[in-house]
Design brief:
It contains eight helices and 24 strands. By secondary structure, the protein is α/β, with parallel strands linked by helices.
Length: 422
């Protein structure tokens, strides 16, 4: 029996287990998936927890519930990968040999990478919402908020779900207004970018939205350290931003196992061909989702589109056929903007988010780069789609892994042949 091993049973790894279970000859191949944590988190739902809109029951299920029968599930920490011997060493001492390896170990927050971030203010005045524990702690802090300076801060890119800090800021504006605290709260958005987002046209729209909502923006802010005594963040060029409550997105990094294996970059992301998803480490190693270094968004929609391409390429590799260069960086993200409205953006490596309609040209029902109630409903519906469709590798009608240009109003002056990072 030949061995296909998947490392990580989060969004990307679970989708690959379900895709491959349906696609490969299980009399010839044994699929094994390894993960040390028993709980599967719906990470997009963390955004809603601080505002009391979601709770644990909305975002947490057992990982085993989504692993298909016939796939071996091992609950264990991973020590390292040895590409030379095609083997994975588990923390338990067990060695797994593989013919094909898929790395789907994701990205994690690393607040310890910033001086002072985990000091005396951590989880008292400083919170994150990219972890379940952080989001629930922030909810408790907001319940006691009576006004002051609330700072939303991005440490550095790349981060998971790059639009989430904007969404948090917009939802905070709505939540504070609902509680009669908006005029008592100064909202500040601090980013290392020179604008509100990575893509120029979308950045312009988001920048105007921040202004309209009276959210002050501080750009080009590269944090050097946190002064817990004075309650302020300080940039490398000496600028100071004081806070009463700091909601920060810490540095995101790949799994520490990648560093122990000596196969990652400085942030522990694995060098990966951005079109085939084959690793640059060794031909029989493939990478998906947040674990890659491809210049696409680190978002669940991207992992979903990647899983369709990677499944085809795993089959090609098994049959000794050339890999297809089909992954175009397609990302599709709702941006919740408060007051029961949301934006939707759809883009890839070559084309930044454009206005228009999605998925049906001229009909929608979703609007691109425009606030709408229907977009808000789409954002809320995505949780059901995630648990019942995406994780189980069920196709979503009308939405392809290849981005469609139809329905988008693309100005003739917009270059379409230059890749850019999300």
């Amino acid at each position: 029996m030949r061995q296909l091993v998947i490392l990580g049973a989060g969004t990307a790894g679970t989708m690959m287990a379900n895709h491959l279970h349906k696609s490969i000859d299980l009399h010839e191949w044994q699929i094994t998936i390894v993960d040390q944590y028993p709980k599967h988190y719906y990470q997009p739902g963390f955004l809603f927890i601080p505002f009391g809109l979601y709770s644990e029951k909305d975002v947490v299920k057992s990982k085993r519930e989504f692993i298909p029968h016939g796939v071996e599930y091992l609950e264990s920490a991973i020590d390292r990968i040895d590409p030379r011997t095609n083997s994975v060493m588990l923390a338990s001492g067990t060695t797994l040999n593989y013919d094909i390896l898929i790395i789907a170990t994701g990205a994690k927050t690393a607040p310890e990478q910033t001086e002072g971030l985990t000091g005396s203010d951590w989880r008292k005045r400083i919170f994150d919402f990219y972890t379940f524990e952080g989001a629930t702690a922030l909810h408790a802090a907001l319940e006691n908020w009576n006004g002051g300076r609330l700072v939303v801060h991005i440490t550095e890119l790349p981060i998971k779900c790059p639009v989430a800090p904007l969404e948090f800021s917009f939802l905070a504006d709505w939540w504070l207004a609902e509680r009669g605290l908006r005029d008592k709260t100064e909202l500040v958005y601090v980013t290392p970018l020179s604008s509100a987002f990575t893509k120029p046209i979308c950045a312009d729209v988001m920048g105007h939205t921040l202004t309209d909502k009276r959210i002050n923006t501080v750009t080009d802010f590269n944090i050097a350290r946190v002064d817990n005594d004075q309650h302020q963040i300080i940039s490398w060029d000496g600028r100071e931003v004081p806070y009463d409550l700091l909601v920060t997105i810490p540095t995101n990094m790949g799994d520490a196992m990648i560093e122990r294996s000596g196969i990652g970059d400085e942030l522990n992301f694995v060098p990966t061909d951005k079109h085939t998803l084959q690793s640059k480490v060794k031909d029989n190693i493939f990478v998906i989702g947040d674990a890659t270094d491809v210049p696409a968004s680190k978002a669940g929609s991207v992992a979903h589109f990647e899983s369709e391409v990677l499944t085809k390429n795993i089959l090609h590799y098994m049959h000794g056929e050339p890999l297809t260069e089909d992954f175009d960086g397609h990302a599709n993200c709702y941006i919740e903007s408060g007051f029961n409205k949301a934006f939707l953006i759809d883009f890839n490596y070559e084309l930044e988010p454009m206005p228009g309609t999605f998925p049906l040209p001229g009909i929608g029902p979703f609007s691109l780069l425009k606030e709408s109630y229907v977009n808000h409903l789409g954002k809320l519906a995505f949780r059901w789609i995630y648990w019942n469709g995406l994780l189980k590798a069920r196709p979503i009608p009308g939405i392809s892994h290849t981005m469609s240009r139809t329905g988008k109003r693309i100005p003739p002056t917009v270059p379409t042949d230059v890749a850019s990072e999300a």
